Amino acid sequence: QVQLVQSGSELKKPGASVKVSCKASGYTFTSYAMNWVRQAPGQGLEWMGWINTNTGNPTYAQGFTGRFVFSLDTSVSTAYLQISSLKAEDTAVYYCARGGMIIDDAFDIWGQGTMVTVSS
Amino acid sequence: SYVLTQPPSVSVAPGKTARITCGGNNIGSKSVHWYQQKPGQAPVLVIYYDSDRPSGIPERFSGSNSGNTATLTISRVEAGDEADYYCQVWDSSSDHPKVFGGGTKLTVL
Lengths: 120, 109
What we know:
The complex is a heterodimer of chains A (120) and B (109). Chain A has 120 residues and is mainly beta.
């Protein structure tokens, strides 16, 4: 079946980096966009941006430039989110979510989420 | 940036109808999607493009969108519908173009 499986929870110290993976299966990886969504503890959903799985071109929402990098390995149908110089306020659940290549398409498939905790 | 306003909470008795609103400036000109999120789980798409249902979503879930308000309607509410619900649109003029509402906690009494 169509699914996105994310890597496990991470505990990092401030200033460190983390790389979250999102492996797709059950569909043609390059036929759909991959989005990233953040959810801080007890808070709502916040769209971080997306990556075009055909071209590898990323688009970052305001507030997610500089320390956040989206990347792909199409040979294994996997998208990645890397966050550098981690801060306590980066503590959140990070979701990958499949979207269509049409810009206003919905996010129809979601990963299970990866909890990233930043604490000294 | 474009703002979507949802009521923080809605309560409804089992078997009744719940309506969750999503307000935004001229939202009727945009495509609205709705997601359900149960505690500790990832969101699930329940309505897309204002009123379409993905396969597997019960017919009890419906959506509408006009003017400045989009509405998610859940008929014959069940205990299992208790969750947070988020609306989402794409706004071409925003620097944060894929926007979520703040979410509504649906409580089944």
